[in-house]
Amino acid sequence: MTKSYSPGYNNLKQHALEVFERHGGWIGPPEWAVLAGFYPIRSAYSYLLRLHRFGLLERHQTARGIGYRLSGRGFSRLRWLKG
After folding, report:
1. Second CATH level (architecture) for the domain 18-82
2. Are 30 and 48 in contact (CB under 8 A)?
3. pLDDT beyond 80 at 54
């Protein structure tokens, strides 16, 4: 069962980045939404794009669609959020 997270800005960001940290590779928005418990799933596209624009995620077009993974800045931010 997935832990429930409050809608706080940094809490959601930390949870989002932790999913990428645990997965360790490229994840598409629908897959990430399921892993993160983020609903509605279609809103994952805009949320992950926002994190990409902040420089926290790398974005790549794959044969299966758009994929994201944690960037160096994302690792740093996650460490800061956990600290």
Report:
1. Orthogonal Bundle (1.10)
2. no
3. yes
